[in-house]
Automatic annotation (TrEMBL):
Residues 4-102 form the Rieske domain. This is Ferredoxin subunit of nitrite reductase or a ring-hydroxylating dioxygenase. The keyword Oxidoreductase applies. GO terms for molecular function: 2 iron, 2 sulfur cluster binding; dioxygenase activity; metal ion binding. The keyword Metal-binding applies. InterPro entries: Flavoprotein-like_sf, FMN_Rdtase-like_dom, Rieske_2Fe-2S, Rieske_2Fe-2S_sf.
């Protein structure tokens, strides 16, 4: 086996790591416990750079944790922690004087074990539940409240009215998701390290299939024809739960960047925005920008707004007026009529003719610049 020099000892003091290139592969060197070891740099999960990971003594040895989603490998044997079967590539190291030499080929080859993701099979394989004639309407209520102290929510009430009308008039199948009742984690920002670190299904979901966003992905991407998002106005913005959900939906949009793949196919979105005070237009703008980037189509007049102005601090009367409002009763129905009409038009579209005029990975001005630490 041939060996090549990849570093000098002074470049790799005790307690440090370094990523080097060996032929066409990147290799992570570690100098811990008085020994230099080398394993493949590309994590077997999604290719995260192991040479940038934290090193700790744990389990039965010293392990590196992948900085992307936390897979672990023994830095000497390349094995996954006890109980897992993944094997990372291991290279042989020789020291000659000040030179660190590495075998040109791994002495143990990488092997990814099978991981049971059957609970996410429908999401992984995009098993759409919509049909040529389905009218599946998903309502997402983003308001927050203590369900032990239930209060009247104008946004949720308008959403309930809309869904009830959709069933009555069109025989639509409807579902309501109340975000406050889902236990889901915030987006943990993996995308910020590398676009490939934001995966489909979401890596947080992969780590915990019981995370509440699994239901949102399933119902929004696979089941719904129409998505109605209802939000209160909170200090001029949509509800914080809406933003929490939106951040976790980056996984849907990121498939366009990574694979030119549009997950949202022939779906309509519309919005219910209510508040005691104003800023309906700004909230509608926020919602529409994001939902168009996901690939949704809007009906004409795609949002319903309700507010009473800056000086309307008498919120009890807001509810009073809302309950009596003929405008709300009428426009919740009109919104559904417009959504169903728009849906009937776009159902005929050939989804493969729809392209996303969005940046793809090769569009970046720095696409050709090699990042020596990354594997992709
Ligand atoms: S844990 Fe390494 S890429 Fe996901």
């Amino acid at each position: 086996m041939d060996f090549i020099k990849v570093a000098s000892l002074s470049e790799l003091p005790e307690g440090s790591s370094k990523i080097v290139k060996v032929k066409n592969s990147k290799v992570a060197l570690f100098h811990f416990n008085g020994k230099i070891t080398a394993i493949g740099n590309a994590c077997l999960h999604k290719g995260g750079p192991l040479g940038l990971g934290c090193i700790e003594k744990k389990y039965d040895g010293t392990y590196v944790t992948c900085p992307w989603h936390g897979w672990e490998y023994n830095i000497q044997t390349g094995t996954a922690p006890p109980g897992y079967k993944d094997q990372q590539a291991v290279y042989e190291i020789k020291i000659k004087g000040d030179a660190v030499l590495i075998s040109e080929e791994p002495i143990i080859k990488a092997k990814k074990a099978t991981h049971d993701l059957s609970a996410l099979d429908d999401l992984i394989h995009l098993k759409y539940q919509t049909t040529a004639t389905s009218i599946n309407i998903l309502g997402i209520s983003t308001t927050n409240m203590n369900d032990d102290l239930v209060r009247f929510s104008t946004s949720e009430n308008a959403l309930e009215k809309a869904l009830a009308y959709a069933t009555e008039k069109y025989g639509a199948e409807t579902k309501m998701i109340k975000l406050r009742q889902l236990n889901f984690r915030h987006c943990e920002g993996y995308y910020s390290q590398h676009m490939n670190a934001c995966t489909w299904p979401c890596s947080v979901t992969e780590m915990d299939v019981k995370d509440g966003m699994t239901q949102v992905y399933r119902d929004m991407v696979l089941w719904a024809d129409v998505v109605l998002v209802a939000t209160p106005i909170r200090w001029g913005n949509a509800s914080s739960l809406y933003y929490k959900m939106a951040e976790r939906l980056n996984t849907v949009q990121n498939q366009i960047t990574l694979k030119k793949k549009i997950l949202i196919q022939n779906k309509v979105a519309a919005f219910i925005i209510t508040g005691g005070q104003d800023n309906i237009q700004a909230v509608a703008g926020q919602l529409m920008v994001f939902f168009t980037d996901l690939g949704f189509v809007f009906p004409p007049f795609s949002f319903l707004g309700w507010s009473r102005g800056w000086t309307a601090e008498d919120m009890d009367k807001n509810v009073l007026q809302f309950k009596k409002s003929e405008y709300i009763k009428r426009t919740t129905k009109e919104m559904i009529d417009n959504c169903v009409e728009t849906l009937s038009q776009i159902k005929k579209r050939d989804i493969f003719k729809i392209i996303a005029p969005k940046p793809h990975r090769q569009d970046s001005l720095s696409a050709d610049i090699d990042n020596p630490e990354m594997n992709i």
